[in-house]
């Protein structure tokens, strides 16, 4: 994970395309104000990511990249982390480093996300929920706490809605679930415009990763190893990524109509400098989930698990202990 010889760099082409995305994103002015307040710099927050035991595994014919750290399956709580977009589970290294001391941990790049295998049939909330079911069965994981930001969120909710399960609690945030939904300018482009989906395809994975950094971090500065992993992970996959966004409106309706039936203790986390799915969405979601509570992270961007990873870790710890 930290081998300098295998690094893939964000190049000038990537940066130019990402700069163009920033220019056509009206929310950038607010993001830049937040960065200025945080004295945001070009220096990486961590020189290199903490080591995560990454490996590839085939489950029911689907090849994924995952990690696990087991302390004691009988006496320690178990947590599973689902990847966000366009990140991979490498982005969880700061929280992994702390959580592994107290809990049994699993994490995986969702099929077609991160370094996992991509196929057209993986491009749906429903498939991702079905795969989570397969993953839990494969490792015989029960009584689990699921942490699912971003695209992981509808995957976890789809699993809960469509399967008998033994999930103790959910921690979800900043993903699509409840209607009516408030969308940022960038989400509107990816979901509702075939022209812009094509433009993201042409720009490629490096521009996608660099744009995400510009739009979604206001404190944390990714290091070269993280950026390399994200760019390599999404190389050749952007076309399929855009199919997921194209299917998003129909899939969202299915999740929305079942939210009131989810009675698992649910922590909904959001952040004030959120310009992917603005903070108004958190209150719509909370109102529809009968056993939920909200935690808002101040002065953070979309990738809150990086921007405030110390507090994010503490939130998970306190929530898991409360619902052990």
Protein architecture, described:
With 324 residues, the chain is an alpha/beta fold. The chain is 44% helix and 15% strand. It contains 13 helices and eight strands. Helix 11 (280-288) links the parallel strand 7 (266-271) and strand 8 (292-297).
* Class per helix and strand makeup: alpha/beta
- Spatial strand arrangement across the major sheet: 1-2-4-3-5-6-7-8
Biggest sheet record: 8 strands, mixed
Write down the Rg: 18 Å
CATH superfamily: Alpha/Beta hydrolase fold, catalytic domain
Task: Tell how many strands the DSSP assignment holds.
Answer: 8
- CATH names the topology as Rossmann fold
CATH architecture: 3-Layer(aba) Sandwich
Distinct helical segment count:
13
List the main descriptive attributes of the protein structure presented here.
324 residues; alpha/beta; Rossmann fold; eight-stranded mixed beta sheet; globular
Topology:
Layout: H1 12-23, H2 28-37, E1 55-59, E2 62-69, E3 78-82, H3 93-99, E4 104-108, H4 125-138, E5 144-149, H5 152-162, E6 167-173, H6 185-192, H7 194-203, H8 205-216, H9 224-234, H10 238-256, E7 266-271, H11 280-288, E8 292-297, H12 304-307, H13 309-322
Parallel strand pairs: 3-4, 3-5, 5-6, 6-7, 7-8
Antiparallel strand pairs: 1-2, 2-4
Helix pairs in contact: 1-8, 3-13, 4-5, 6-7, 7-10, 8-9
